[in-house]
Amino acid sequence: MNSQISFIQKNEATLLFDKWNHNKVLCGMTTKNGGVSDSPFQTLNTGLHVLDINENVIKNRELVAQSLGFPLQSWVFADQTHENSIQRVTKKDAGKGSKIYDTAIKSTDGLYTNEKNVVLALCFADCVPLYFYDPAKSLAGIAHAGWKGTVLQIGKKMAKTWQTVEGSRLEDIQAVIGPSIGSCCYKVDERVIEKVKQLSIDTDSAITEVNSTEYMLNLKELNRLILLDAGIKEQNIAVSPLCTSCEDELFFSHRRDKGKTGRMMSFIGFKEA
Ligand SMILES: [Zn+2]
């Protein structure tokens, strides 16, 4: 069985995945609380692309960055497009997309680095944050997997990129499937399920039929199956039980809030040794 893990609440604004902390890996996700944005982005919206006031978003990001001890100019954001491009990030990229959306790394849904003091950040409101860590090669990465990125197997692509480009051994790679919409709240139609069923793996455990045209999709389980298929060991994959739609005190949810909502950011980076 996969191990269910909890993110620990560091403060009202931030949840941290503590298991990697002793290895100086900063890994976590923001909540919707503790920021300065107004309705419908109240209060800690971290997405620059959702019609919130830019100054408020920057203030929110700065509040989080400060509380974590990493100035915002060391953060790197991507222009996310629900595809599966992955980019390696270095210190030269620090600050990209942190205050101005147009400077974000273009058309990218996965980021990784082997450098310290660069924090990789992606924005979420139901989609699945996938975190990756290879202690042997000192690699940290993050990917954005909504249903499109999931069926494009962005998680597998990250693992295979690390294996082929960075020399990682698959058995060394650890992965965390973060808070995101659960199968409890994620009803999809046949258009989505057809894409899921085209995958070359057995996806039955991720799909529950509601009626002849509707299904509950377990995106976390589907990503877990894809990571297993990529060669990551079962004991190295942890899954957060938190559902962004159910936990309405904690998270924005695109589905629950009918599209008018803010974004959390998920982040990973190496602290100074
Ligand atoms: Zn739910």
UniProtKB/TrEMBL annotation:
Coiled coil: none annotated. Keywords: Hydrolase, Metal-binding, Transferase, Zinc. It catalyses: adenosine + phosphate = alpha-D-ribose 1-phosphate + adenine; adenosine + H2O + H(+) = inosine + NH4(+); S-methyl-5'-thioadenosine + phosphate = 5-(methylsulfanyl)-alpha-D-ribose 1-phosphate + adenine; inosine + phosphate = alpha-D-ribose 1-phosphate + hypoxanthine. The keyword Cell cycle does not apply. Its cofactor is Zn(2+). One of its GO terms (molecular function) is hydrolase activity. Signal peptide: none annotated. NCBIfam families: peptidoglycan editing factor PgeF. Purine nucleoside enzyme that catalyzes the phosphorolysis of adenosine and inosine nucleosides, yielding D-ribose 1-phosphate and the respective free bases, adenine and hypoxanthine. Also catalyzes the phosphorolysis of S-methyl-5'-thioadenosine into adenine and S-methyl-5-thio-alpha-D-ribose 1-phosphate. Also has adenosine deaminase activity. Belongs to the purine nucleoside phosphorylase YfiH/LACC1 family. This is Purine nucleoside phosphorylase.
